[in-house]
Amino acid sequence: MSKVKIRTASSAEVPALLAFWARSAEGAGITDDVDGVTRLLSRDPDALLVAEGDGGAIVGTVIAGYDGWRCHLYRLAVDPAHRRQGIAAALLSAAHERFAALGGRRADAMVLDHNELAHHAWANAGYAPQAQWSRWVRPLDGVEAPAEVKACPGRP
């Protein structure tokens, strides 16, 4: 593994995190903006974990959210130039430690169906899809629905 430091993100880093996700993560959601990430950090300052490489550069992230009942993982991303060096594993290990300390019992991850590279990473970390579950979403009032929600069968 390359030499990285795992730490929590700061609100001052929000623009840098958004830029990192734009080049290193696949898929953007309606919360991938300054307000959304700032709200996350205000509500749970320890939820967004950052892998910091040489010189302080962000080389990886994961959001390890805990709602008091379930452990949720989002935005696992590693800079393409730093992949296959154990950074994702280090981030997930830190997330698992956070969840255990909070009393969590099981973690789940949001993974795009078409992101084969991510499927391999999650499988290597011991995760597996649950075929019997599907994610159902609804934007809240006043929020524009993403194209994939607008295209759902049966949606008016």
In short:
The chain has 156 residues and is α+β, with helices and mostly antiparallel strands.
Please provide a written account of the structure.
With 156 residues, the chain is of the alpha+beta class. It has helices spanning 14-24, 34-43, 87-102, 116-124, 147-150, and strands at 5-8, 48-52, 58-66, 71-78, 107-109. It has a five-stranded mixed sheet. A hairpin with a 4-residue loop joins β3 (58-66) and β4. It is globular and about 45 Å long.
Return the structural class.
Answer: alpha+beta
Spatial strand order of the main sheet: 1-2-3-4-5
* Overall average pLDDT: 87
SSE series = EHHEEEHEHH
Strand % is 15-25%
Strand runs, count: 5
Largest sheet composition: 5 strands, mixed
Distance between the termini: 49 Å
Record keyword descriptors for this entry.
156 residues; alpha+beta; 5 helices; 19% strand
Describe the protein's topology.
Elements: E1 5-8, H1 14-24, H2 34-43, E2 48-52, E3 58-66, E4 71-78, H3 87-102, E5 107-109, H4 116-124, H5 147-150
